Hints:
Elements (H helix, E strand, L loop, with lengths): L11 H4 L5 H9 L4 H20 L5 E5 L5 H7 L4 H9 L1 H4 L3 H15 L6 E6 L2 H10 L4 E4 L9 H8 L3 E4 L8 H11 L5 E7 L5 H9 L2 E5 L4 E5 L3 H13 L12 E11 L7 H9 L1
Parallel strand pairs: 1-2, 1-4, 2-3, 4-5
Antiparallel strand pairs: 5-8, 6-8, 7-8
Helix pairs in contact: 2-5, 3-4, 3-13, 9-10, 10-11
This protein binds S-adenosylmethionine (SAM).
Amino acid sequence: xxxxxxxxxxxxxxxxxxxxxxxxxxxxxxxxxxxxxxxxxxxxxxxxxxxxxxxxxxxxxxxxxxxxxxxxxxxxxxxxxxxxxxxxxxxxxxxxxxxxxxxxxxxxxxxxxxxxxxxxxxxxxxxxxxxxxxxxxxxxxxxxxxxxxxxxxxxxxxxxxxxxxxxxxxxxxxxxxxxxxxxxxxxxxxxxxxxxxxxxxxxxxxxxxxxxxxxxxxxxxxxxxxxxxxxxxxxxxxxxxxxxxxxxxxxxxxxxxxxxxxxxxxxxxxxxxxxxxxxxxxxx
Length: 284
Ligand SMILES: C[S@@+](CC[C@H](N)C(=O)[O-])C[C@H]1O[C@@H](n2cnc3c(N)ncnc32)[C@H](O)[C@@H]1O
């Protein structure tokens, strides 16, 4: 098992496979469930945006979208359990990539509405984006690493048409540098944002970056299970990182799970509906 500098186990190899099978079979063993817990919050923010901004079918930018996981949950009303079964069962194991993709195209067509949201996926993995785009989970794909590069003109134009920006399991790999480049390209439109971020990663730099561009950020009360630790060694390393960050793991990470927090950022003055409480009631 290899670990990155934050102590988390390195799962980079599952992000760049030609199809999502390794992604789901590996993360299923770790009970990765943050997209499922995020779903009602994202859905509520979409409803709120639709109601207040008079945009009936908003465009969502999913940062670190991988194989279109949040898109599957939001556009197809899939669940993580359903996806784990779908990509991890014996039938899936025997299929070629093309056959798996055909099966997914049919699934996506049967579960999406023509007047529904559009999802643009941003990821550093060309393989994951290519699959998600071909399956129809993503409407557009942005293959970029905005930590190190400026967006192209075409990518800037896509960001400028974005209504909402979401992420799960990605901040940490991605920092305020990526967020600043997206906001810079979006200009006056100022997409609303919801980010789930592990407790080991400080969100303050993103809050400050967004504040400088006219946003206010609120943390939603509570914490959200992301996944189990892959090993006792990973847990020890992450507890060290939490300790250095001044975060108390007692009753949370010390008991075997990584936890995330949720931050919602909207342009100052945007209607302040209680997105969080209603979604929390559905979820807990
Ligand atoms: C743990 S996965 C999360 C995937 C998905 N959001 C979910 O929750 O299931 C992290 C994703 O971030 C992507 N990633 C890593 N570094 C990135 C970067 N600099 N820019 C964009 N995506 C990046 C990886 O390729 C991977 O798809």
